[in-house]
Amino acid sequence: QKKISDVLQKSAPKPGVPADLQNLLTQHFGENRSVIEIEELQLSDSCFLPANDLTHSFSSYLKEICPKWAKLRRNHKEKKSVVMLVLCSSALRCLELIKSMTAFKGDCRVLKLFAKHIKIKEQMNMLEKGMFHIGVGTPGRVKALVEQDALCLNSTKYMILDWNWRDQKLRRMMDIPEV
Prior knowledge:
This protein is of the alpha/beta class. The protein has a domain at about 55-175: P-loop containing nucleotide triphosphate hydrolases (Rossmann fold, 3-Layer(aba) Sandwich). The chain is about 40% helix and about 10% strand. The chain has helices at about 5-10, 20-30, 35-40, 60-65, 70-75, 90-100, 100-105, 120-130, 140-145; strands at about 85, 110-115, 135, 160. Strands 2-3-1-4 form a 4-stranded parallel beta sheet, with helices on both faces. Helix 8 links the parallel strand 2 (about 110-115) and strand 3 (about 135). InterPro entries: Cms1 (IPR032704), P-loop_NTPase (IPR027417).
């Protein structure tokens, strides 16, 4: 009997597409929402940037999708918000992406938005006192910060989902039930 991990190890990774997220939203909310509410959840393909076709490093991908980053970074003056929000499945993956984006970020400030060794109160204080351009975090911590009004998403221009990366159990972020 084949295990899913055996199949995934042999199959080549495929880049994510907007339909993947749409299907996930429909599956998750389909049972307890009306037809009108489900229609409101539908996002047009114009809402999505091209996915990383797995030929780019993270920095080169960010440069491709956000060519006017320097201007966006200079114009960002709001506290309690970020221009770019990157969501990953784990704190270790967040750290890996932060290290890999050094060529892209330049002198902008990056905020770690995950629970590993960082208390939520510390993150709330940092958001209130400082100005950050990029936030890299896990869905659980970002959700907690938004719910407590510590993180405002009004000035967020880019939300990047680390869709294709698989953990040790070969699960993607969207395959984890808690997410």
